[in-house]
Design brief:
Number of helices of chain A: 9
Distance between the termini of chain A: 42 Å
Number of strands of chain A: 20
Largest sheet of chain B: none
Radius of gyration of chain A: 24 Å
CATH architecture of the largest domain in chain A: 3-Layer(aba) Sandwich
Structural class of chain A: alpha+beta
CATH topology of the largest domain in chain A: Rossmann fold
Structural class of chain B: mainly alpha
Oligomer: heterodimer
Order of helices and strands of chain B: HHHHHHHHHHH
Order of helices and strands of chain A: EEEHEEEHHHEHEHEEHHEEEEEEEEEEH
Shape of chain B: globular
Strand order of the largest sheet of chain A: 6-7-8-3-9-10
CATH topology of one domain in chain B: MetI-like fold
CATH superfamily of the largest domain in chain A: P-loop containing nucleotide triphosphate hydrolases
């Protein structure tokens, strides 16, 4: 019998794991270390291999190759019930024939613990639903079922809690609330949470570290701010928020900066944020970092002139502009409505500028739209 | 004008009443004539009596036949439900070579005419040197009940979310505990339904039984034989009692499942 409370503790290490279903490779030579006690998110579009990875950690799938460890224990081939791992399933998978109390007590009883009342009551208080103990799962709302699923898992004090799109079935408002609550509970219980989601906002709100997955591989791993400000690939730049990616060529260096020519205009990109393989680059800038002024205004930093507003939508806190550039590319600009100046209008000629530190550079051979379509589909 | 309007509004109800009348007239007739003071022949109404209900075994051999039917039914039900449930789990939960063929073959006994089944079984038993009687009837009943059990239980298994079993395993239940604590309780209503179906099929069967029973009398056989000289009202009493028992089980089942869901 697995002893979830003591022996197996430590980082989760996934080492060179590959999982194939017939000809299809769901997870491709994945290596990942998830530190003990962290809130870790596996983020990616559907079919990127994140759920398969989770199921291999849970023991519901067996890796074709590679190994999985918790601390020093190899759990690659142990049965699901032998692992100090519990899962919050996507549709909760609460046992419909058992009361809420018995659902939560299920794992404790299977491990031979006789006196479960104290632990169950405590966890019901933690999720603030002690009054529902004697109900059946189908009598609960979606949000309540979600909390019970969480309670049923963490009452076992696993080394690792896996969450498979746990908030996917909830409406937006409830999802926001649960995001904050999940983060709070994780801090409270101190268990390592591994959270699988396709929702970038959800991942960024909760996780300390995010691994962005695409086609069975990790594209990039880091803190939310890292990934957002310094994406290494076009997929990450587009999947996490939105990016303007402009083709350019490195012409030379100026101190810590590359000088990049974009369609005849010069901009600077900090070398720390350059992931270029040679002189051909995609210069990246987030829409909210760009300032927009009527054409002719003198501006500092990286400046691009010759744009014309092709679309402007006022959405309260900000105005979103589409700017058509002389090289026929549409750039996005989000401008805060905080200066009392009426928004610019469609057809206005404009100049764009931003601080050079906000620019990042990607390998010029990348598909500038990678990751943007999948994102639109999922939302 | 007002009558056509009323009809238009209530057409569906009128239709329903007619439909149920059609369905229940034979049952009502059987029930009514169980109170007939008709003696041995129960063809014409000769006056009301409770005597038949007070003494349902009053007609010669009727309760002997009933006892045989219940024994055959119970043994066949237990055997067919057990075997059929195992087959249903194999078909519904596992991938193996010949699975789809098995799926088709399971339907075959349901589609074969009973007369043919009965006659072939008799020929087979005689060739094997087994004389018609109690056990050949049981074997025949188990055979044709299994298909119905498999179909019923398999439908229930198909509607079961596999994630529930995965969740159980995730919560430290091994394969056997998962089956006992999660799978079986959730499939149980299907198994119970299959058992009821098997029993009523077995209890009801005349054709296959008639071929293979030899001197053994079952309740349907008794009624068939008796019909030549007039069915005793005790047969109506037993028939009505079976009907009400079945009705009671169905209603009780509904109430229990509704209580559980709440």
């Amino acid at each position: 019998m697995a002893d979830a409370s003591s022996s197996t503790r430590g980082d989760l290490r996934i080492v060179n794991v590959t999982k194939s279903f017939g000809d299809f490779t769901a997870v491709d030579d994945l290596t990942l270390t998830i530190p003990e006690g962290s809130f870790f998110a596996l983020l990616g579009p559907s079919g990127c291999g994140k759920t398969t990875t989770l199921r291999m950690v849970a023991g519901l799938e067996e890796p074709t190759q590679g190994s999985i460890h918790i601390g020093t224990t190899d759990i690659t081939h142990s049965r699901p019930y032998q692992r100090p791992v519990n899962t919050v399933f996507q549709n909760y998978a609460l046992f419909p024939h058992l009361s809420i109390y018995e659902n939560i007590a299920f794992g404790l009883r299977r491990r031979g613990i006789k006196d479960v009342k104290e632990a169950v009551d405590k966890i019901l208080n933690l999720v603030e639903l002690p009054h529902l103990a004697q109900r059946k799962p189908l009598q609960l709302s979606g949000g309540q079922q979600q909390r019970i699923a969480l309670a049923r898992a963490i009452v076992n004090r696993p080394a690792l809690l896996l969450l498979d799109e746990p908030l996917g079935a909830l409406d937006l408002k409830l999802r926001r609330q649960m995001q904050i609550e999940l983060k709070w509970i994780q801090t409270e219980v101190g268990i390592t949470f591994v959270h699988v989601t396709h929702d970038q906002e959800e991942a960024m709100t909760m996780a300390d570290t995010i691994a962005v997955m695409n086609e069975g591989k990790v594209e990039q791993m880091g803190t939310p701010a890292d990934l957002y400000d310094n994406p290494k690939t076009a997929f990450v730049a587009n999947f996490l928020g939105q990016s303007n990616l402009i083709e350019g060529r490195i012409e030379g260096n100026d101190g810590d900066n590359h000088v990049v020519d974009v369609f005849g205009q010069k901009i600077k990109i900090n070398k720390n944020r350059s992931h270029a393989k040679d002189s051909s680059v995609l210069a990246g800038i987030r829409p909210e970092k760009i300032r927009i002024q009527p054409a002719g205004t003198a501006m500092s930093g990286n400046v691009l002139t010759g744009g014309v507003i092709s679309d402007a939508s006022y959405i309260g806190v900000s105005t979103q502009y589409q700017i058509e550039m002389p090289w026929k590319q549409e750039l996005m600009v989000f401008e805060q409505n905080d200066d009392g100046v009426p928004p610019l209008e469609k057809g206005d000629p404009v100049t764009l500028s931003w601080e050079p530190v906000f620019t990042f550079a990607l390998d010029g051979r990348e598909d500038a739209f990678a990751g943007s379509e999948v994102h639109a589909d999922e939302e | 004008m007002r009558i056509t309007w009323w009809f238009r509004k209530n057409l569906i109800r009128v239709y329903m009443v007619l439909g149920f009348t059609y369905l229940f007239i034979p049952v009502a007739y059987t029930f009514a004539f169980s109170f007939n003071n008709g003696g041995k022949s129960n063809l014409v109404w000769k006056g009301f009596t409770l005597g038949n209900w007070q003494n349902p075994c009053g007609a010669p051999d009727v309760c002997l036949a009933l006892g045989n039917s219940i024994r055959v039914g119970l043994i066949s039900t237990v055997a067919a439900t057990f075997l059929g449930t195992l087959i249903a789990f194999a078909l519904g939960r596992h991938q193996f070579k010949g699975r789809s063929t098995t799926n088709t073959l399971i339907f075959l006994p349901m589609a074969t005419p009973e007369v043919v089944l009965g006659a072939s079984l008799l020929a087979m038993f005689l060739n094997l040197g087994i004389n018609p009687g109690f056990w050949p009837v049981v074997i025949a009943h188990v055979m044709f009940c299994i298909s119905f059990v498999v179909v019923t239980v398999k439908a229930r298994i198909a509607s079961l979310d596999p994630r529930l079993e995965q969740a159980a395993m995730d919560l430290y239940a091994n394969e056997f505990q998962t089956f006992r604590k999660v799978t079986l309780p959730l499939v149980a209503p299907g198994i119970a339904g299959a058992a009821l179906l098997a029993f009523s099929l077995s209890f009801d069967d005349f054709i296959i039984t008639n071929f293979n029973s030899g001197t053994l009398t079952t309740f349907p056989k008794f009624v068939y034989v008796a019909s030549a000289r007039g069915i005793p009202p005790q047969a109506n009493v037993i028939g009505s009692a079976m009907f009400f028992l079945a009705l009671f089980i169905v209603i009780a089942g509904q109430l229990v499942s509704r209580r559980k869901a709440r």
